[in-house]
Amino acid sequence: MFLCRGDINRTSCSNCIHAATLSVAETCNSHKGASIFYDECIVQYSNVSFFTLVEDAPAIRRYSPSSYLGSSDFFNQTLPGKIYELILRAFSSSLSSPIPYFAEDREHVTQLEGSYDLEALVQCSPDLDPRNCTECLRLAVEDFFECCSHARLAQIIFPKCLVMYNVSALQPSLGVING
Question: For residue 34, what are the β-bridge partners?
Answer without folding.
Answer: 45
